[in-house]
Structures are given as C-alpha cells and as structure tokens.
Design goal:
Three copies of one chain form a homotrimer. Chain A has helices spanning 2-28, 40-67, 72-95, 101-127. Chain A is mainly alpha-helical and 132 residues long. The longest helix of chain A has 28 residues, at 40-67. The two termini of chain A are 21 Å apart.
Chain lengths: 132, 132, 132
C-alpha cells in the first residue's frame, strides 16, 4: 500500500498548494476574507481549488477501495494521471476558464476507472460468497 | 468490507452525478464559469452538490470506522439510508429550497448513528485495554 | 487504531457543529438558502465551515497514513492539536477575519507534520524493498 499512500499524500500536498495559490491571489487582487468574489482572476484560482476538493474527496476513497481488490500499483498509477490532470486544469483554468475541459477529463477519467474497478472487485467478492 | 466498499462507491457516483447536474445547469441557465451565482435555479443545484460534499466527507470515514467495531452490513445499511436521503434532498431542494428539511434529516440521521456507534466502539476498545 | 478513530470522529463532529452554526446564522442574519452571501457575519461562519472542510479532508487521510508507519498515538495527538486550532480559528474569524492566522497555523502545522511523517514512512517502506 506504500505507493497508494505516497500518491494519496501527493494529492493532499497538491491540493494544499492550490489553496495557497488562492491565499496569494487574495492579496494580489485585493479580495478581503470572507469574500470569495469580486475579481475574475481570483475567482478562477478559487474555483480550481474548489473543483480539486470536489474531485480529491472522490479520488482518495476510490483509490483505496480499488487497491483492496487489484494491484495497488495500478491504482497508484491512476492517481498519478489524476495529479497530472490537475496540473493541466490549473494552468488552463487560470489562463482561460473556457479551456478547462481537457484537464478536467484527464482528472475524471482515472477516477471513473478506479470506481468501476472497485465496484467490480466488491461485487465479485460478494457474489463469490466470501465473508463480506 | 465489500458491502461498505460498494455503498461507499455508490455515494461517490451519486455525488459525481450531482456535480454533472451542476454542469448541465451551467449551460441551461447561462451561468459562465467561474461564477456560481446569478441564477436562482442554478444556485439550487450548486447548493445540493456542495451540501452533499459536506455530508459525504463525514459519511465515508464514519461508515469505515463504525465497520471496524460492528457488523459492516449494518454500517452499509446506514449508508443506503443516506443515499436515499440525498435523492429526496435533490428533488425537494431543486423544486423548493424551503422543503429541503426532510431529505436533510434522512441523510444526517444515519451519519449521526454511525458516528455514535464508532465512538462507542473505539471508547470500549480503549477502556478494554486492548492495544489501541 | 482506536485513538485515531476517536480523534477522527471528533473532527467530524466538530465540523458538523460548525455546519450547524452556519444554519443558525442563516436564520439569525436572514440569509435565505440557496444564497451564501448578503450578510458579513453569516459569511464568516460560512467561511469557517468551508475552511474546516478544506482542511479536514486533508487531516483525515494524512492521520490514517501516518498511523500506518508510526505510533498511532502520535498521529492522534497531531489530530488533537488540529482540533484545538479549529476552535481558535472559529473564535478569531467570527470576531475579526483579520485575526484568523494563528488558528489557521495551529490547524495546518499538525497536518503538515502528518504528511511529512507519512511520506517518510511510505518512502522508507518502498526503498526498503518491502512488498508495497
């Protein structure tokens, strides 16, 4: 499970870095807390962080569950694709929100693969009559 | 644990579907990213997704911890009640935000049960002198 | 793992309580759902809940992973520091958003320690040639 742990922790660090970029954008574009609107560029950084939060909370359990049934190194590899997708998403969204689709797909696809793999594994285990 | 995994993955899929509804509402009601306000119906879908995120991040760890001390099938059943509650919440909130209380309670109650069960299990384990 | 479970559940309960404060502030300051803006004090409670969500989803996996390599009681202790930091953050932010830095640092530092500890543990395991 060490590879899963390492990739999972990298996802946490990446997410915290996106949060730090939001904090930096607050100062740079003069958006005082608790406001989260008022400057278009700040809002882009804020939406990147929120969207990453929304996907990370799906990635981590999906990666853990998939790794319970299949080779954890494959699950970790899917996590790496997600990490790359998030970097692409950050760069695209902050330049032009309209171009965010590719980075989004690159993050969502490995998550979908992990969910399907986990469901298949759990279903086979249940149908196989093993102690659930 | 296979039942926990299956219900956990269903919660992830349900949440991703709520996210897809937000994306669809963006197009339908003309709310351009990064904005999250400007149309009342869009905001309802957005709040359903956010509220589901807020509860799902509690449900998953609570279900896992409770399953470490009690029959995982009971914990998975609590998760199913949560899933139904979220469907009720979606339908009620998007029709009329004022009617969202029942779906909310139906999602929060199993979470509360899981938390209490987990705390009881962990406390008994610690008091029982077992290696923590 | 019982200590990790107990502290993890306390983090969930604390977060749900912050959510209840947002619900209460909705009534008190007349912010009707789905709006999340319109009253400065309400927005502070809302931002406290959101910021706690943002950190809690990092704390929990980091605590679990660190506990897989080091004494779980140390990981649980880091979780307790986070819990105290969140209380400080709530009190400071709702009084004056400008004074939120100390509570924030007090919550982020144990998370950073857990992430570094987890990375170190996982890296040593991989380098040590143990089955990942």
């Amino acid at each position: 499970m060490a590879w899963i742990h390492l990739v999972g922790l990298l996802a946490l660090v990446q997410y915290l870095m996106f949060g730090a970029l939001v904090g930096k954008a607050r100062g740079q574009y003069g958006v005082q807390a608790p406001a989260t609107t008022g400057n278009e560029v700040f809002e882009r950084y804020y939406r990147v962080q929120m969207n990453t939060l929304e996907l990370m909370v799906v990635l981590l359990p999906a990666m853990w569950i998939a790794a319970a049934y299949w080779d954890p190194r494959w699950a970790a590899l899917a996590g790496v694709v997600y990490l790359v997708g998030r970097m692409v998403y950050l760069r695209a969204y902050t330049r032009d929100p309209g171009s965010r689709a590719m980075g989004f797909m690159l993050s969502v696809t490995p998550i979908a693969v992990l969910i399907v793999a986990g469901m298949l594994g759990a279903a086979l285990r249940i149908l196989g009559g093993a102690a659930p």
